[in-house]
Specification:
The protein is an alpha+beta fold. Helix content is 30%, strand content 31%. Strands 1, 2, 3, 7, 14, 15 and 16 form a 7-stranded mixed beta sheet that branches. Strands 4, 5, 6, 8, 11, 12 and 13 form a 7-stranded mixed beta sheet that branches. Strands 9-10 form a two-stranded antiparallel ribbon.
Length: 332
């Protein structure tokens, strides 16, 4: 091929390439617009989803309830938590539904605009994304760190916030229970080790269970005089801590409680049991603030209904029997 012929072919090829580029350029720009702006839309929707999920979880801590004041506080919590994540919602974006108990679910919806960059070339400047977060309150189904005290629930359930004096078995209270509702608890082999030693029981008071304890588990009742180990375990657990109930637990407007400091040694998660000598079946879990205790195995404190972080979720009891330990989860 001569130089002249080669140059002619080169000019022809270049002309075809230019023509193809001119034809394909709009498509290339369109793909670029789709890719970049679709990515922006995805990121915006993910951030929006994170915000409504956080808002739903915050609102669910006030459930279950049909009390108007309580529900207003739940809506306020949702609005505040959404704002903390950079999303603005209104109370009307927060709704409640029923699954196991009246208003035990919360739905939070939000929308946001996405500013397009490349799609403006085609006359599209804004897009909209929407997300919803749904959270449901359940009961605490299991967790580690459970104390080895199997508490028998009173008839009619606990009155949260009232003082209770829990006696070890049938021991006398020696005046420790004055002014408090009396109840019984049983020393348990909480980790199901087949070990009834006083030292293991004492150590589990100090540290809580080393294993995950579940509702429905059956545990042996430790026999013998456990008054001394109960006091020793509490000495090891509480030590010189002098905090009071208001220092650790906030009373929520309209009812309910929030634990401000889960590291407090006075906060204990207790198994609520049905006693069948020589065993006890765990029905659920209660959250208990330890106020005082005596040498004869009596412990005075208050049960609170609150959401426990890190616990396993289980459905609420359809009949409404609750022991105060709750967990919230996202269900969508």
């Amino acid at each position: 091929m001569t130089m002249k012929t080669w140059m002619q072919h080169w000019r022809e090829d270049r002309g075809v390439s230019t023509l193809l580029l001119a034809v394909m350029l709009p498509a290339i720009l369109g793909v670029q617009a789709l890719t970049v702006d679709a990515t922006r839309t995805f990121v915006e929707r993910r951030e929006l989803q994170n915000a409504v999920d956080a808002a739903a979880l915050a609102a669910a801590t006030y459930l279950p309830s049909t009390n108007a004041v309580q529900l207003d506080h739940a809506r306020t919590a949702a609005v505040e938590y959404a704002a903390l994540n950079g999303v603005t919602i209104s109370p009307s974006d927060v709704t409640f539904t029923t699954d196991r108990q009246p208003y035990d679910r919360v739905n939070v919806q939000a929308q946001a605009d996405v500013s397009f960059v490349f799609a403006r070339t085609f006359g599209l400047s804004l897009g909209a994304v929407g997300s919803q977060g749904v959270a449901q309150l359940g009961q605490l189904g299991g967790m580690p760190g459970i104390l080895p005290w199997g508490v028998e629930p009173p008839v009619g359930g606990f009155v949260f916030g009232d003082p209770y004096c829990l006696k070890l078995g049938s021991t006398g209270n020696g005046g420790a229970c004055n002014g408090a509702v009396q109840g019984n608890f049983h020393a348990l082999d909480i980790d199901d080790e087949g070990n009834s030693s006083a030292s293991v029981y004492r150590d589990r008071i100090a540290s809580g269970s080393l294993t995950v304890v579940h509702a429905g588990d059956v545990r042996d009742v430790v026999t013998g005089n456990m008054n001394g180990p109960t006091r020793q375990g509490l000495d090891d657990r509480v030590g010189s801590d002098i905090t009071d109930f208001p220092d650790v637990i906030e009373v929520l407007p309209g009812g309910g409680y929030r634990v401000l400091d889960w590291s407090s040694p006075r906060i204990a998660v207790l198994p609520i049991v049905e006693y069948h000598d020589p065993t006890a079946t765990i029905l659920g879990f209660g959250v208990f603030f330890i106020e005082t205790y005596s040498a004869n195995g009596a412990v005075v404190g208050r049960f609170v209904d609150t959401v426990v972080p890190g616990g396993q979720w289980a459905p609420l009891a359809a009949g409404g029997t609750e022991y105060g330990g709750h967990v919230v989860r996202l269900i969508q």
